[in-house]
Design a protein that fits this description.
DNA-binding; homotetramer; mainly alpha
Chain lengths: ~190, ~190, ~190, ~190
DNA sequence: AATGAATGAGCCTTCATTCAT
DNA sequence: TATGAATGAAGGCTCATTCAT
């Protein structure tokens, strides 16, 4: 890997933190200069706006999200286990220190109209994964027979709501657990 | 009403629109000057920051929200009707041209740490109202027997999720309707 | 006395304090509005700038300074007593809470070139008084025979220096007393 | 020397002039921009307030003031010569085109309470030098036997008074000369 | 006389962005 | 590639001043 590429990864890594702390809009190129210890010119050689940096982060993010779901389904892992794992991931996201990042993504989507497709895509992607799980649960007779499209949207929306709220309100782990239980009871057969 | 007060209301009215369009952070005092046709100094006489203006709007909002719910409950209006009405209001919020306002409130909460209590309060308030309705539905035997605390949080979160998403993604009215139906089926008996 | 005149005196009285606290330049019409509890318009009816107010204060000051010196000389009060009294007044000025006022006058003179004559006049006036005392002391044989012009300038300058310094440095009462003693020893015979 | 440092010295050099002309308070960053032909941002890169600039000037001033007095004393130069030279310097300060600077320093001290120690320090420093000269004069039997502490304060105060006045009043060179003579007669033996 | 709403000018400050080195 | 000096635009804020009431 060349030095330039390394620098770029370094910039992105540092930037995520800053975005998670301050949101998307509030971050300035100056902030990133300081965080990366790069000079103005040095940073501009690689990226010429926060928008560009943010976009680069999103791109990488999507790449990384190669789904393991397919694998575990093939391995006949019980649907409940897979689903529980999925929920655990979401809980993690709502409680961890990336709460801010979640907000930043929303802000980005709101501010940069021309980039909304990103969000759409990401949401679509998440939907695909969840639907796969739900369908698999149906087939294995572990899950109740809801309309999958509606149900997956419902679940994603609740989870989104939780993540959004948690970046902005004080939400206890217990509250989240109760919601997760609620969802599980909703779809598990007995 | 004195002239000053009138001007202040006018400022708030115009500002809501701007916040709904641009979000919280992106709005400048200059924007508000332009929208209200006030000079710099004229505006500053009444409010000295967008934060102050935003806060004033929220304050008024809370005042206005005197609940009609108590009334209709006393009038023995069917719980399903009340609840349906509540949902209709939320749908309206998600589709109307104040989508942006909802996002702005989130942004405000994220940016102004010292004002988070506002949001907490508002959410708490909304929760109280919803719980009243759900309890009433229980008592009248119209609603299933869920744990009210959990259920109300669940519903609020979904609705929040929908409103949040709609300010940022392209969500069809149909999708929202399906979610509303889903919620109703979830709690109505038969 | 008419109401208007009363208001004006009130404004001047309050303003002196403010000038003594903040100096001349730093005082704004707004400050004076606040101190006098007058509205913008109310204040402007009487004075339309801080310069005007300051000038008015100076004018009054000069009026007030009708010299008692002539009287006491006629009453054959000992020169040493008169001079000691004069020095005591200066000490008072250096220690009292009008230290700031003294600075403000300097500032005014520096800033408003067209008003420098005021200062010249005031200094001239003070010089006249002091010279009267010195001359009287000579004649009575109480004071040494210095050149009066030079001596009076010297004394005034020291006292001025003390007053100036005291508005800006931390000068002890003892230090001032020593200077006063020094001056007295300088001119008293034996 | 790097370019940045050069610019900073240039800024200070130009600023002294402006402060001497307008005093401390009245100077704006804009004034300095114009005088240095720097853009707003360019200036701010180096100094972010007139206070900072003024402080920097004072700092440099103190550095520069390495006393030559010690040297000349060692070389047994007559005390009268040294003292006369000292007085000449003060006369120069009172008449030269830096009159305004002297006032600016006072203004600075008055306005910036947190920086008063500067003035105290400078005055103390000046006192040390003068006392050295006076003591040396005593020892060589050239000067009368006054209390050195009191005498040095007296002289400094007169000189200060002269410098202050000259920035604000019209004082002739002759007047200053007479004061200088007066001081010399005061302390020289015969 | 007095009030306080409104204007507009002037200065402050911070960045995105460019560029010579 | 990287540095950091410099520019200029954008927005913030505070007043002196005017004016209708």
């Amino acid at each position: 890997m060349k030095k330039g590429q390394k620098t770029e990864e370094f910039i992105l890594k540092k930037s995520i933190k800053i975005f998670a702390e301050k949101g998307y809009t509030a971050v300035t190129m100056k902030d990133i200069c300081e965080a990366t210890d790069l000079s103005r010119g040095g940073l501009y050689r690689h990226y010429s706006s926060t928008k560009e940096i943010f976009t680069a982060i999103l791109d990488k993010d999507i790449e990384d999200n190669g789904s393991i779901v397919d694998e575990v389904i093939q391995q006949k892992v019980p649907a409940k286990v897979i689903f529980a794992h999925f929920l655990a991931g979401e809980k993690e996201a709502a409680l961890g220190n990336n709460k801010g990042w979640f907000f930043a993504v929303h802000e980005f989507a709101f501010m940069e109209n021309d980039r909304r497709s990103y969000l759409d895509e990401r949401v679509f992607h998440a939907g695909q994964i969840l639907k796969k799980i739900l369908r698999y649960g149906h087939e294995k007779g572990e899950f109740k027979k809801f309309d999958i499209e509606t149900l997956s949207f419902h679940i994603l929306t609740v989870l989104d709501g939780i993540k959004t709220s948690s970046s902005v309100l004080s939400i206890s782990e217990e509250t989240i657990d109760r919601q997760i239980d609620f969802i599980e009871e909703l779809i598990y057969i007995n």
